[in-house]
Design brief:
By secondary structure, the protein is of the alpha/beta class. It contains twelve helices and eleven strands. The protein has helices spanning 3-6, 12-18, 27-46, 54-69, 95-105, 125-135, 146-158, 179-185, 201-207, 234-244, 271-276, 302-310; strands at residues 113-114, 119-120, 139-143, 162-166, 172-173, 177-178, 189-193, 212-218, 248-253, 281-285, 296-300. A seven-stranded mixed sheet has the order 3-11-10-9-8-4-7, sandwiched between helices. A two-stranded antiparallel ribbon has the order 1-2. Helix 2 (12-18) packs across helix 3 and helix 3 packs across helix 4 (54-69). The radius of gyration is 27 Å and the shape is elongated.
Length: 315
């Protein structure tokens, strides 16, 4: 241990006095950063490898304070060529909308309060009518994100039961989140049908038993299988579901309400077209093609949506 090197370490109070731009920050947090940095320098001093003088150590700690207290979220220029980049915040929110949101969230709102009656309201009422009108669905609700929407539907309709999914639709999205993992986490049992490149209606029909809770149809929007392929249309699945009295849930992923292919974006399935197929529930994101805040949107049959609303994890 080199005592001379240890003497070069400033005290916490010395560094605090040198801080010029931390008036709006919590002193306990600043002190925590200082102590952590000093401990690192102290270990170097004990090993006899500390080469810095007190002034430089103090300056280094001040730089670390500045770095640690700077906002983590920064504006960036998207030069990737990917418009809806999940790593860059997905779709930018329109400035006028962002200002309206900021105005609302800077004060109290009637999130769950019925102003005409002065009694407790329901938060889903704010989106139910609008989403139903836009998609043609009987009812609607919103949750945190699309993964949460899928998890909620699985848990409510298929917990403890088998959920039938084509092998060719067991997608993985960013962050290594996979459909089989979501199904397992929801308390359901995955029942795979077909193969990676070919799945037929008879595969689904043979898989349906008394243990079946639902059929999950997943839109494979982030990859394409070409060549010797075959898939089952959603409308055929809906007919099978009605015949066997098994609900069919469609996970659209991004979800589109208007055709924007004329803007150079690949054409995607419209939510309202999926609703017309007669599917029980449709889940999709509010923060991608819709350009809104992160949200998982669920539209579909009123009886099924009402079930989801009553599920404890819907909160």
């Amino acid at each position: 241990m080199n005592q001379n090197q240890l003497k070069e370490l400033p005290s916490v109070s010395e560094v605090l006095l040198e801080c010029k731009s931390t008036k709006s920050l919590n002193n306990r947090y600043i002190a925590y950063i200082i102590k952590s940095e000093l401990e690192s320098y102290r270990r170097s001093a004990k090993k006899g490898i500390l080469k810095l003088k007190r002034a430089q150590i103090t300056q280094n700690i001040l730089w670390e304070i500045e770095r640690s207290t700077a906002p983590n979220m920064q504006s960036v220029i998207n030069g990737t060529g990917i418009v809806l980049h999940t790593g860059l915040g997905r779709a930018p929110m329109k400035e006028t909308i962002a200002k309206r949101v900021a105005k609302r969230v800077s004060g109290y709102t009637n999130l769950e309060f019925d102003l005409p009656t002065g009694t407790r309201g329901k938060r889903q009422d704010h989106v139910n009518g609008l989403l139903s009108a836009l998609t043609g669905a009987q009812s609607a609700m919103a949750v945190n994100n699309n993964a949460a929407a899928v998890l909620l539907a699985l848990n409510e309709l298929g917990e403890g039961k088998e959920v039938i999914v084509s092998r060719g639709q067991q997608v993985e999205i960013g962050g290594s989140f996979r459909i089989p993992d979501v199904i397992k986490k929801s308390g359901c049992i995955l029942k795979e049908v077909g193969s990676t490149n070919r799945t037929h209606l008879k595969d689904y029909e043979k898989a349906i038993t008394k243990k079946t809770g639902m059929i999950l149809w997943v839109h494979t929007s982030n990859y394409v299988v070409r060549g010797f392929t075959h898939d089952v249309s959603l409308s055929d699945l809906v007919l099978l579901g009605k015949k066997k009295r098994v609900p069919v849930v469609a996970d659209l992923g991004s979800g589109a309400l208007v055709d924007i292919s004329e803007k150079g974006v690949p054409k995607d399935m419209l939510v309202q077209d999926v609703v017309k197929s007669g599917v029980g529930l449709v889940t999709f994101s509010g923060d991608k093609l819709l350009g809104g805040p992160q949200a998982g949107l669920i539209v579909g049959k009123k009886a099924l949506v009402n079930k989801l609303k009553k599920n404890p994890i819907a909160r």
